[in-house]
TrEMBL record:
This is S-acyl fatty acid synthase thioesterase, medium chain. Its EC number is 3.1.2.14. InterPro entries: AB_hydrolase_fold, TEII, Thioesterase. GO terms for molecular function: fatty acyl-[ACP] hydrolase activity. It holds the Pfam family Thioesterase. The keyword ATP-binding does not apply. It comes from Myiagra hebetior. PANTHER family: S-ACYL FATTY ACID SYNTHASE THIOESTERASE, MEDIUM CHAIN, THIOESTERASE.
Amino acid sequence: FVFFQEMEKLVVCVNRRPDALCRLICFPWAGGGTLQLSQWGKLFSDSIEVLSIRLPGRETHLKEPFAKDMASIVNEVTNALLKELKEKPFAFFGHSFGSYMSFALALHLKEKYGLEPVHLFVSGGHAPSSESFLAVKALPVSAAKDEEIVARLKILGGIPPELLNNEDILKQVVLTFREDFRVLQTFLFEKAEMGIPFSCDITIFNGSEDEAYDVQAWQELTSGDTSFYQLPGGHFYLLEPSNQSFLTKHITRCIENAGV
């Protein structure tokens, strides 16, 4: 169990499935923890084991310093999971900031170890090579007041309603959001330098009331197939039970079709 102790810091697995054929590794949004995505394990069949990435500075690791940059997150997750990633097929799901993290990690694994997810599922995120991504990175989050960030997160729906009246929790959410955003700003991706980085299929999900995402830019990042699904709701459409049901069924189908 030593391996699980080392992983425990960074990786949460609520429903262990040692005999699963594939692992789905989930990456949270800015300011987010593992609460929602780690519960997805219950929604999948026995053939898929769900792991959720827990970044430092939140939940049971509140006292730990936040990650400095995207490279250190990628290195830590690689160190914690490399053995597992080599052992059996894996897929990534990331929402918003999580989609950029999953992309950065997939890039690193491909370049350094020749490993690639069987499928990359990105949600509410721009292709890292797109103009829209540069616009997100340029948002003046560091200069914004706490209450401006809270107001924005309320509009997006990123804070559970029961926490909105708790000052201490809101303070922590804002701090975590700022730190995650700072990490996002350290992520540089120069597509011109490397051609097409991936060969796996990519599926892009987003909410119908969220901003538009550049599907074309995602298509240019893989020689595999790219598909796009819009589900009812805003930026946090994925927290709706009916959408979760669609996502888990669709993700399962894609993984099974990958011939895992």
